[in-house]
Write a structure and sequence with these properties.
This protein is an alpha+beta fold. The protein is built from seven helices and 17 strands. It is globular and about 65 Å long.
Length: 519
C-alpha cells in the first residue's frame, strides 16, 4: 500500500521544473505582498479613524464548520488543526485537505504535529471500489477501480517567518495515481460511470489535480486564488455530492464538468478565482480560466501547462446564500451560477448549410461560445449534532448546457441523506438519490442521421453512443460506515434505466463496495 504512495511522491518531485516553480513562486509572492500591504494599510486606516461599520467590519464569526469535501470524510470533520484557508462555510470553499484530518496511523509517530507547527500539512488516501453488474447491460462484469491521492498544503507565514503580508497565504497541491477498469464501458454506458474514481488520470505515476496559491484577506471576507485549479473545486459544487458513488453526482455538476471550460477533478485549468463573503451567510465569486482544446488539460499527466491552443477563456460566476434556521442552526446552501466559454465548437448536427454533416460531407457549422447554468440547493431538516451534514438533509440540483455543442442538454437531481444517529452509529451516513439526464436535440438528430446513412456514431463530450439517445435515469442507495478513524467502507447500489441514454441494452443493476483509507 505504501509503495504506490512513495512512487506518487517521487513523481511529484520529478515532474516539477525547478526553474518554472521558482519563477512562478516569485511572481505570485510579490503580488500577494502587494495585496497584503494594501490590506494592512486599509486596516490601519480603519483603526485610526474608528470609522463607522462597513462591509469589512462584520461582527459575525469567521469560523463555521466546513462541509464534507471527499467521499470518505466523517460526518463531523476534525478540521480544527488546519487554520486559515478552511475557515469559511462551504460555499466560497476555502479548502482543507480533501481527505479530512483523521489518519489511520494517527499523528505518524509525532511527524504530523511537527510538520504542522512548521506550516506543512500532508494527507494521503487510498480508495478502492469493487463493482459488478449481475443484471442487464451489454455484458456482465466485475472490475476494481481506485486511486492513491496525496495532498500538500503550505502555510507561507510559518515557512517564511515573514511579515503580515504573508498571513493566510497558502500553497495547495494535490496529485493522484489512478488505476483499474471502467465497469460502465463494459456494460454499454459510455456517457456515465457508476464508479466514482476512474478516468482522466492519464495512467501516469502522479497526475496533477491542482497547485495554486491562495491569499485570504479582511478576516477571510476576501479570498483570491491563482494557479492550476479545477473550476469545479470552487464552482457548482455541493458538500454532499461525493457521498454518492456515481460520477455524475460526485464532484461538480453534470453536464457542466463535461464541457472543456468547466472540467473538474482531476483536470485543472490555469486560472484565478476571487471570492467575496461580506457576511457568513452570503457570497459572490467569479473565476477566469484558460480553456484547453485537448482531451487532457495539462496533457495526460496534468503537468504540461504550456499546451498549444490555450487562447480562449472560460468565465465563471456564482452567488450563494447559506442560511441557518432556528435554534438548531439548520444550515442550507442555495447557489445560482453559470459559465461562458468563448471558444468555438462544432455543432453536433448542422453543417454549414443546416443539414446533417455526418452524412452530407460538408464541414460542421461552428458555434461561437458555449454556456452552462446551474441551480443547487440543500437544506438540513433535523440536526443530530455539530457539522453541516450531521442530520437529515434534502438536496436538489438542476443544470443546463448548450445543446448544440453538448450531447447532454439538462439534468436534475433529488436526494435525501442522514447519519446513523437513530441506530447508534452517528458517524455513519446513508443516502438515496435520483438522477434524470436528457440528451440534446442536436445529438439525437445527429444519431438518427447516422442510422439513416448507415455510418458509425460519432463521439461527443459524453462518449460514443450505442444507439439513438433520449434520457437516462439513475437510482442510487449507499451506506457509509466508519470502521476505525480514517477507514470507511461503503456498500452502494445503483439501478440504471436506459444505460447510455438508449434502449439498446437492458436496464443495469450495479453493486459496489468502496474502501477508503486515509493514512
Amino acid at each position: 500500500m505504501l509503495r504506490p504512495i512513495a512512487s506518487l511522491i517521487a513523481g511529484l518531485t520529478a515532474c516539477f521544473s525547478k526553474k518554472i516553480v521558482l519563477r512562478s513562486v516569485g511572481v505570485v509572492l510579490a503580488w500577494f505582498a502587494f495585496a497584503g500591504a494594501i490590506q494592512n494599510a486599509v486596516a490601519q486606516k480603519q483603526s485610526a479613524t474608528q470609522s463607522k461599520s462597513g462591509i469589512f467590519d462584520d461582527s459575525s464569526p469567521d469560523v463555521s464548520d466546513p462541509a464534507m469535501l471527499g467521499e470518505n470524510q466523517e460526518i463531523v470533520p476534525l478540521y480544527h488543526a488546519i487554520p486559515g484557508f478552511i475557515q469559511a462555510p462551504y460555499g466560497p470553499p476555502s479548502f482543507g485537505p480533501p481527505y479530512g484530518t483523521n489518519h489511520v496511523f494517527g499523528t505518524w509517530g509525532g511527524i504530523q504535529p511537527w510538520l504542522q507547527k512548521r506550516g506543512v500539512y500532508v494527507a494521503a488516501n487510498v480508495y478502492e471500489s469493487l463493482s459488478g453488474n449481475p443484471v442487464g447491460g451489454k455484458a456482465h462484469a466485475v472490475t476494481d477501480a481506485g486511486q492513491v491521492g496525496v495532498t500538500l498544503d503550505i502555510d507561507w507565514k510559518k515557512i517564511l517567518g515573514a511579515g503580515d503580508w504573508s498571513n493566510n497565504l497558502w500553497l495547495h497541491m494535490l496529485a493522484v495515481n489512478g488505476h483499474g477498469r471502467n465497469l460502465s464501458a463494459l456494460y454499454g454506458d459510455n456517457a456515465n460511470q457508476a464508479q466514482q474514481i476512474y478516468g482522466a488520470r492519464g495512467n501516469v505515476v502522479a497526475h496533477l489535480v491542482w497547485t495554486y496559491f491562495e491569499k485570504s484577506m479582511f478576516h477571510n471576507k476576501v479570498d483570491l486564488s491563482v494557479g492550476w485549479i479545477p473550476p469545479g473545486t470552487f464552482f457548482d459544487n455541493s458538500p454532499w455530492t461525493c457521498s454518492f458513488m456515481n460520477v455524475w453526482m460526485c464532484g461538480n455538476i453534470t453536464p457542466t464538468k463535461y464541457l472543456n471550460g468547466g472540467r473538474d477533478w482531476p483536470s485543472g485549468n490555469i486560472g484565478t478565482v476571487l471570492r467575496l463573503m461580506p457576511t457568513r451567510h452570503f457570497y459572490v465569486m467569479g473565476g477566469l480560466f484558460a480553456v484547453s482544446p485537448h482531451s487532457y488539460n495539462g496533457g495526460i499527466s496534468g503537468w504540461a501547462w504550456g499546451q498549444e491552443g490555450l487562447g480562449k477563456l472560460s468565465t465563471h460566476a456564482e452567488i450563494g446564500w447559506i442560511p441557518e434556521f432556528g435554534r438548531d442552526h439548520l444550515i442550507g446552501h442555495y447557489k445560482l451560477g453559470g459559465l461562458y466559454d468563448n471558444s468555438s465548437y462544432k455543432d453536433l448536427y448542422s453543417d454549414i448549410h443546416g443539414n446533417a454533416w455526418i452524412s452530407s460531407g460538408q464541414p460542421a457549422r461552428m458555434q461561437s461560445g458555449q454556456t452552462s447554468a446551474w441551480v443547487m440547493l440543500d437544506q438540513m431538516l433535523i440536526r443530530h449534532g455539530e457539522g453541516p451534514m450531521n442530520g437529515v438533509v434534502l438536496g436538489a440540483q438542476y443544470s443546463y448546457a448548450s445543446g448544440q455543442t453538448s450531447a447532454m442538454k439538462q439534468r436534475a437531481v433529488a436526494a435525501i441523506m442522514d447519519t446513523g444517529h437513530y441506530w447508534g452509529r452517528p458517524k455513519d451516513m446513508v443516502g438515496f438519490s435520483f438522477q434524470w439526464a436528457e440528451f440534446s436535440r442536436s445529438a439525437i438528430r445527429a444519431e438518427k442521421a447516422a442510422v439513416a446513412a448507415g455510418v458509425p456514431f460519432v463521439a461527443a463530450n459524453f462518449g460514443t453512443p450505442y444507439g439513438v439517445q433520449s434520457h437516462e435515469n439513475i437510482y442510487e442507495f449507499f451506506y457509509t460506515t466508519q470502521v476505525i478513524p480514517g477507514f470507511s467502507v461503503q456498500p452502494d447500489f445503483q439501478y440504471i434505466q436506459r444505460p447510455g441514454g438508449t434502449t439498446v441494452f437492458k436496464n443495469v443493476a450495479v453493486f459496489s463496495m468502496a474502501f477508503s483509507l486515509t493514512l
